[in-house]
Amino acid sequence: MTSPTLNLREQKKRETRQTISDVATRLFMERGFEAVTIAEIATAAHVAKMTVTNYFPRKEDMALDLSDEFVGSLARTVAERGAGESALAALRREFLAAVARRDPVIGFAGLPFVRMIVESPTLTARLREFHELREQALADLLVAEAHVGPGDVVPRAVAAQLGAAHRVLFAETIRRTLAGDDLDDVAAALADAGTRTFDLLEPALGDYAVR
């Protein structure tokens, strides 16, 4: 099998996965997450029910299809920080850049999508799990970089503080979106909230994990 054939098959898989996610999310927003069945998603996406479950073993991940990007976002930003940059500085820089580009990973997803999330106990619980996994991924990275044993609480305490800051800022994006605030107003408020939040952390974490 040639490499172009492999690439074509992988592209087809990505397209199928995205189609299923898009169709499912549309149905979820129209009727509510719990009301939509896997069979209905398969019919609307013109695929077999088994195809849906092969791509998405958990129904909620069809709506939260940026989960991998979300969970890895903090650890990835810290891992890629520049020389002389601390973990906090890298996360501050990336958060403000994400606000500027209205990144859905930090909550800029539009009112219908946000309402779909908050009205579903299943999706809310899954999102909470993603926050926890994101903090754990950051903690694992900081532990590895610090070359300390699993009993050293400092990297985990740092990850908890940084993870909590991002969780609060994410919740603020959701709150303002539900309130119907204009997108530019939400972005301006988040940039200010992010700056003040990271400023509060600076005295304690500004010199931690400097590359």
TrEMBL record:
SUPFAM superfamilies reported for this sequence: Homeodomain-like
Question: Which residues, as ranges, make up the DNA-binding region of this protein?
Answer: 37-56
Q: Which Pfam families match?
A: TetR_N (PF00440)
PROSITE patterns recorded: HTH_TETR_2
Instruction: Show where the HTH tetR-type domain sits.
Output: 14-74
Q: What InterPro entries does the database record attribute to this sequence?
A: Homeodomain-like_sf, HTH-type_TetR-like_transc_reg, HTH_TetR
GO molecular function (one)? transcription cis-regulatory region binding
The answer to whether keyword Zinc applies is no
Transcription regulation found in the keyword field: yes
- What keywords are assigned to this protein? DNA-binding, Transcription, Transcription regulation
Supply the PANTHER family for this chain. Answer: HTH-TYPE TRANSCRIPTIONAL REGULATOR BETI, HTH-TYPE TRANSCRIPTIONAL REGULATOR RUTR
Which named protein is this?
Transcriptional regulator, TetR family
Protein species of origin: Micromonospora citrea
Q: What is the lineage of its organism?
A: Bacteria, Bacillati, Actinomycetota, Actinomycetes, Micromonosporales
